[in-house]
Specification:
The complex is a heterodimer. Chain A is an alpha+beta fold. Chain A has 20 helices and 29 strands. Chain B contains five helices and five strands, in the order ββαβββαααα. The chains are: A alpha+beta, B alpha+beta. The complex binds FE2/S2 (inorganic) cluster (FES) (2 copies). One FE2/S2 (inorganic) cluster (FES) binds next to loops of chain B.
Amino acid sequence: MATQAPARKWIGQSIPRVEDPRLLLGRGEYVTDLVLPGMVHAAILRSPLAHARIASIDASKARSLPGVLAVVTGREIKELTNPMPDFGPDPSKHTWWVLATDKVRYMGEPVAAVVATDRYIAEDACELIEVNYEPLPVVVDPVEAMKPGAPLVHEPLGTNVAYSRTFVFGDVERDFTEAEVVVRDHLRWHRSGAQPLETVGAVAQYNPATGMMTIYCNSVTFTFLLFLVANTLKIPSNKLNLIPCPAGGSFGSKFWAVRVPILAGMLAKLVGRPVKFVEDRIDNITTSDHHGSDRIYDVEMAAMRDGTLRSLRVKVVDDYGAYIQFGVGTHGNSLAQVVGPYKIKSVQYELYAVLTNKCQQGAYRGFGSEVTNWVVERMVDLVARELGMDPVEIRRKNFIQPHEFPYTIPTGNMYDSGNYPGVLEKALQLADYQGLREMQRRAREEGRYVGIGLISAQERSVFSSTEFWFWFDQPTGITSSPESVTLKMDPMGNITATLYSQAFWGQSPETMVAQVVAEEFDIDPSQVSVIYGGSAGGLPATGPGGSRFTIMVAGAIQGAARRIKEKMLKIASHKLEVAPEDLEFAEGKIRVRGTPERAMTLQEVAMLAYLFKLDLPPDIEESGLEADYTFDHPYTTMPAPDRKNLGVFYPFVGHACHIAAVEVDIETGQHTFLKYVAVHDAGTVVNPRSLNGQIIGGVAQGLGTAMYEQYVYSPDGQLLTGSYMDYLIPTAMEVPKVEIGHQETPSPFTPYGIKGAGEGGRMMTPAVVSAAIEDALAPFGVRVNEVPITPEKILRWIEEAQAPRP
Amino acid sequence: MADMHAIRVTVNGLPYEATVESRLLLADFLRDHLGLVGTHLGCEHGVCGACTVILNGRTVRSCLVFAVQADGAQIMTVEGLARDSQFHPLQEAFRDKQGLQCGFCTPGMLMRAYEFLQENPNPTEEEIREAIAGNLCRCTGYQFIVEAIQDAAARMAVASR
Ligand code: FES
Ligand code: FES
């Protein structure tokens, strides 16, 4: 257990972000800004059809266009590459290639790639490629896709159900039998996606003499899994150097987006020149491999008349699209916090992962748990409605209490700490909940449709790798998910921290590292410089995602700092002739406890360490002050063989209460926010301002999911929202002003008691917006069971609710 | 190559001459020909505003303008905002208020804010939200951008006194 330092100097300060000056000057050094000598450009030809056999491809016209260096089609792809890395169930039955080989399985699937001297010519050449498609029947509805006789996305699989299983945790039968109230609903969460403003890109360079492949890339974080990328590229694992570039946003969608770097690498090796490939927006929308969850639920919740929640029965069909690269890891995420903050005793979880003719799923802020939050909160509200309870009362009644932590939920995951009633009270105060209800009462009297939503939900952080495979019985998967850092204090006493994953997505890794290093050594954050190391000389790293980075890097820094500090103490103790235990790091010095004037500056000690070997104590073997540290997940356990207990895999669990007040115009279906309050508990906060930025940004994305964004496919598999004209990202006019509050309940298991907090906004907002809209439409008895809640849907629901019942 | 045109433009005060294809976008001209990569491309279809630059005093989306259309024009990009490595008050305010996260929308946002504060030096929150509604930010949820623009307006008012 981490000991909690009583007072901290830098952790908890809203220092300005270290990253910002270069971004404000237009010097972000994104991958698309990179130019290498002799660099050429790639573009891809995407399939216009959702499902078709590729009868023939004629690229001769494209190849003869001046400026074209190469055209690669699916015909050549098996010579140039191995299949793409795939963590799904039995990949040999749904093999994924970097370009479609025999048939296309969704609109937008790449069928050919062109390399040319500039991007314009590469795109011209794509238009000259003649592909002869034989259309096949299309399946876009996952329920249809499950039926016998449905068109098969992958014939070798013999079905479109890539995976199905029913998990039972606890005594579900008993809890439902004993329940006094059971509510049921059919819920629909449509597919949306991260849509970072910067797309995925890579610049690859291959040296045929050394066999070294260098790929600059904004979209791959797991450095210890890069041997899989090397395998796809048919190069030895020690001949790949992936150099991380800062990303212009990710929200999960760049944690392992390997198609683009693999494509660039394959082409660079083929043409012998550096190749840049950056998705355009249409590529990113249609074929990013990172669409979000797309789920159809039938849910039952069992409760007692007094409002006590007993059990949850979930049947979920998830439309994964044409491939299933991460298996059903998004449901592992769901199971991490499937009971929410409540003492629900048992859960049944029946899962069908279905393949259809759509772009495959990947990661999007929440990684599936945001959907579960929405489902649980929707069902709790339904129980409250059934019992005539206030949403506040039912939550208060069922919360896990502060003294009950660490708390193990029925699935086996553990919640480390929390104070849910405390967060609720803060939110009620901040929102003036009673005042809002009063305002609502008056508005209703005036014939206005004002609604108030209140939700309380979890934000798990720091996944363990077991999340990705426990849904298999066999084989057993990996259990490591480390993060590493190298710390170096130079002879001037300045510190450089090297990070190894693709760490910058728009959060604040450099700021956070500077604050933590400053805390450890008691120096100023401005004395810390942060750089990003390539994978070839690098240490194992997992990167951001699953809100893990701050905790994991803080742990690595503490480990590396400890090693450096021990060495410095030995040197200082030798010099000052004082026992190391009597020395302390304070105010940029090593000084004698109680006699602060007896001290050496860090610079003095560092100079000795590097330049004066003969002044060092004899037991110091090496000059210099540098330390590596690889920090492994601080708390994870194995799933039980029968999977009735999944072990601890996502244990640092934050919490939030959001309250929203909206007014709905029942003539147009439009809504206006009157209030939006978010109170979060993310354990110890490192930089409050940047945490607030993450929360508000997440609220904006959650609002997109709740009200605006959807990848809409037509029945013949055409993506109808393939541009920002139709895929509606909230603007400054739609996103409400968010009032934020914090409660800090430190984790007993993490460095400084920090909990991850990058996803919370999006994990809360769909639920609170749904509740608020439903409450606004309460006079009609409308039930909100689908997102996005478009104006058309609001009008339709009102109409259906008013229609005379037979 | 067909269809080449000689153009002259002034960008951030410096004159440039170039021969370009008529289909070359202004954004690509700035980025690939002049090396001014601070102007970003988010959508290339005129919706996101990341590529916003100032052309003869008005913001344009440089993904919707051909380089040849800028012949003879005065252009300002994000690289022209700071003077002698001194941040513009807008940049200072964005830094202090954390009006950015990934920074990809930021150059376009700064250009739009620069134009807007010239039109309206003392805007309300609502007016700012409306003014930047054509610039998408996927990271921040806009609130700190709005605060930054308000703060910049105050700083600029002080500076011009
Ligand atoms: S890139 Fe020009 S508006 Fe999006
Ligand atoms: S800061 Fe990332 S898009 Fe605005």
